[in-house]
């Protein structure tokens, strides 16, 4: 779920695999991809209501996962021969891997059938508890289900609703709805549609009425907002980048104009509408620096006004209330988020006045601004709580949330004058449960809208592992309360540790299935992620990346020491950039685990960061460093890069899922990693040919459907 300023804090989430693999996405940010079949609608603020937690400072998911491979363009004299040879080798490798996968997967048909039936059962049992994300406009309620957008009255419920839009009826058979924006007068609706096999979305504008009409189609759009009833602002996307903002009108004199262009390749541009609809904000962000321009919705044709010129290391986001800008920013010490305010007319940081500063090692997940209150959704030591700030009494109230809760999922964007804030709490093994905070009653209400089966037999434990430099690293552990002899139970360890993204800890049917079958689940919140605030990320990126590896090792060792399983029953799961730490651990400490499962993994950091022609390399230098300009950086990356450090030794078994249409991690790099890893394991086996010597399985499953960030429920289930 991405609502309110979370769109800016954590990215525009859009059904991100693993999380966001978010983020949005997000986390996906990124984990398992079993998703609700109907959860692709977005709230009216900007992100889809599915997974994930995205990091403050990494504004959009395009930067959450690197484009991981690519080859240098050869000279013109040799180009044709090289390309033909490369393509033939690539096709042969893909064919060979697919044949190998077909042979191996055939052995697991009975197990696959059992697991699939169990997951479908759990999905049908729990999916209703999430409900349909909604957009409320006075008495009207807009919601999405199965590729259609419906309109109902608030009192009528979903049973009595009119259909406004259908992807299939308009010929968009392979597309899902990514986000929706309703014009202020509710006469137009902008919808972005996205296919599973592409990262570019198409924006469709529908004129509403008795017979809704498709009025305009805009290709390659990322974010968009209505400035007025008939003026739409949007960003265009090309090669995973957004650097242009356009304005298009739906008046009698239709026109489209370029409004803003970002010149710096490290920055990504998106649009957000303040909650009171007073301003559109054009947000240009790198991983460490941001700049915001304001479009006055009362005068949408005027040039945007700069809030504060970009200053290296300064991140800020803007909301508006009562003719004042509310600035969420890292300005000042310590470099964590603070809520400040300034007059609209003099918005420079010299005029920012502090309202509230976060405590050390606290993660700001989201912020919602209301007419008289502000709610901060916070995480500290992986426990969730709310801070309710009153602008009237100037007081701050802290609300602790249930200890089992691991993730917030906010309801659709509420009106800023509402007296109640709705949200859901969830964990990997707890389906979303509805809560509300009432400003009038000044208390938290647990809602029982639907009878959600309660998970009673799962125990949640929070631990702290001492890393190599004495830093305490949080671990969240789930296991069946009825399990005996935990040291004999299988353990699945999760890790990410990049971009300031939290591990995705929203509900997943397959996690609950594992708990029911006696597994232990452990989530290692290592440095490089965002669980303990911005400093936690900073302490695990660039020249600190090895700290995340040390954290992961300390976490697994502590789990074993405390009797949670043992190495021969331990598996490690990671996706996208999480593959860096998982793959590195396999090289340095393979004896700690028996198996590793990777999903679209980033496993060759060095070669990727040496290739500046790739669309994301330059902007990712703030996460990994620039090996081309800094020899020390090149040596440091080489010291932990999974692909560079494969050696002849005994490895755990490895299962990798890759995607033919993945624009961020092309298949060529994954194929190269698998080939090198197989050779190392076989060489080790031939040198140590002892009786009963164990040769690990190195398995690659190449998915023809899906991409780095999206797949349908059916494809996720099959995978």
From TrEMBL:
Quote the SUPFAM superfamilies the UniProt record gives.
alpha/beta-Hydrolases, Peptidase/esterase 'gauge' domain
Q: Give EC number(s), comma-separated.
A: 3.4.21.-
Please list the GO terms describing molecular function.
serine-type endopeptidase activity
* Keyword Repressor tagged: no
Supply the alphabetized keyword list: Cytoplasm, Hydrolase, Protease, Serine protease
> Ranges for the Peptidase S9 prolyl oligopeptidase catalytic domain?
506-683
Read off the Pfam families from this record. Answer: Peptidase_S9, Peptidase_S9_N
Q: Name one GO cellular component term.
A: cytoskeleton
Major subcellular site: cytoplasm
Q: Which domain of life is it from?
A: Eukaryota
The Gene Ontology biological process terms listed for this entry are: proteolysis
Annotated Peptidase S9A N-terminal domain ranges read 95-443
The record's Gene3D superfamilies line, in alphabetical order, gives: alpha/beta hydrolase, Prolyl oligopeptidase, N-terminal domain
Q: Where in the cell is it found?
A: Cytoplasm, Cytosol
Functional summary from the UniProt entry: Serine peptidase whose precise substrate specificity remains unclear. Does not cleave peptides after a arginine or lysine residue. Regulates trans-Golgi network morphology and sorting by regulating the membrane binding of the AP-1 complex. May play a role in the regulation of synaptic vesicle exocytosis.
* Family, as annotated: Belongs to the peptidase S9A family.
User: In its UniProt entry, what is this protein called?
Assistant: Prolyl endopeptidase
The species is Burhinus bistriatus
């Amino acid at each position: 779920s991405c609502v309110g300023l979370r769109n800016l804090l954590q990215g525009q989430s859009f059904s991100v695999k693993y999380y966001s693999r978010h983020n949005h996405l997000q986390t996906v940010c990124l984990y398992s991809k079993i998703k609700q079949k109907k959860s692709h609608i977005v709230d009216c603020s900007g992100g889809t209501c599915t997974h994930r937690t995205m990091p403050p400072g990494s504004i959009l998911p395009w930067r959450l996962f690197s484009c991981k491979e690519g080859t240098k363009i050869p000279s013109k004299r040799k180009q044709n021969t090289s390309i033909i040879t490369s393509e033939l080798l690539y096709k042969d490798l893909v064919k060979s891997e697919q044949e190998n996968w077909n042979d191996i997967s055939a052995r697991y048909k009975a197990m696959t059938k059992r697991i699939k039936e169990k997951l479908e059962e759990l999905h049908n049992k729990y999916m209703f508890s999430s409900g349909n994300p909604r957009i409320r406009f006075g008495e009207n309620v807009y919601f999405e289900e199965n590729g259609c957008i419906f309109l109902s009255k608030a009192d009528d419920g979903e049973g009595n609703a009119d259909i406004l839009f259908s992807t299939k009826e308009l010929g968009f058979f392979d597309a899902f709805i990514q986000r929706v924006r309703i014009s202020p007068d509710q006469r137009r609706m902008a919808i972005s549609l996205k296919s599973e096999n592409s990262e570019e979305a198409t924006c469709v504008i529908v004129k509403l009425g008795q017979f809704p009409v498709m009025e305009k189609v805009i290709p390659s759009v990322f974010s968009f907002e209505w400035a007025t009833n008939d003026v739409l602002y949007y960003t265009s996307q090309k090669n995973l980048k957004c650097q242009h903002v356009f304005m298009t009108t739906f008046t009698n004199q239709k026109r489209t104009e370029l409004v803003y262009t970002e010149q710096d390749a490290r920055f990504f541009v998106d649009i957000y509408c303040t909650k009171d609809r007073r301003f559109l904000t054009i947000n240009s962000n790198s991983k460490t620096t941001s700049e915001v321009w304001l479009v006055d919705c009362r005068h949408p044709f005027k040039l945007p006004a700069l809030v504060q010129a970009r200053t290296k290391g300064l991140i800020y986001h803007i909301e508006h209330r009562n003719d004042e800008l509310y600035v969420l920013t890292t300005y000042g010490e310590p470099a964590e988020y603070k809520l400040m305010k300034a007059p609209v007319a003099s918005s420079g940081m010299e005029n920012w006045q502090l309202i509230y500063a976060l405590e050390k090692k606290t993660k700001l997940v989201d912020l919602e601004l209301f007419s008289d209150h502000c709610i901060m959704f916070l995480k500290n030591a992986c426990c969730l709580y709310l801070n309710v700030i009153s602008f009237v009494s100037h007081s701050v109230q802290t609300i602790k949330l249930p200890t089992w809760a691991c993730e917030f999922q906010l309801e659709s964007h509420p009106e800023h004058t509402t007296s109640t804030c709705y949200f859901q709490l969830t964990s990997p093994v707890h389906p979303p449960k509805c809560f509300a905070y009432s400003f009038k009653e000044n208390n938290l209400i647990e809602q029982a809208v639907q009878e959600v089966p309660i998970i009673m037999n799962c125990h949640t434990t929070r631990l702290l592992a001492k890393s190599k430099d004495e830093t305490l690293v949080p671990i969240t552990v789930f296991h069946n309360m009825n399990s005996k002899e935990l040291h004999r139970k299988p353990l699945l360890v999760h890790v990410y540790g990049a971009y300031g993204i939290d591990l995705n800890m929203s509900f997943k049917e397959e996690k609950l299935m594992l708990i029911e079958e006696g597994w232990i689940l452990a989530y290692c919140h290592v440095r490089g992620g965002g669980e303990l605030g911005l400093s936690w990320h900073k302490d695990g990126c660039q020249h600190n990346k090895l700290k995340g590896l040390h954290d992961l090792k300390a976490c697994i060792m502590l789990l074993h020491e405390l009797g949670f399983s043992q190495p021969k029953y331990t598996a490690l799961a990671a996706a996208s950039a999480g593959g860096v730490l998982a793959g590195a651990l396999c090289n340095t400490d393979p004896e700690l685990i028996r198996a590793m499962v990777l999903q679209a993994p980033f496993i060759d950091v060095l070669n990727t960061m040496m290739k500046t022609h790739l669309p994301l390399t330059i902007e990712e230098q703030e996460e990994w460093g620039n090996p081309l300009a800094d020899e020390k950086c090149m040596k440091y990356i080489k010291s932990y890069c999974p692909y560079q450090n494969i050696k002849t030794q005994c490895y755990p078994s490895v299962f990798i899922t890759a995607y033919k249409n993945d624009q961020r991690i092309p298949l060529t790099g994954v194929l190269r990693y698998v080939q090198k890893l197989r050779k190392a394991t076989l060489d080790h086996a031939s040198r140590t040919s002892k009786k009963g010597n164990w040769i690990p399985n190195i398995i690659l499953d190449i998915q023809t459907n899906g991409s780095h960030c999206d797949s349908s429920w059916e494809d996720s289930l099959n995978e």
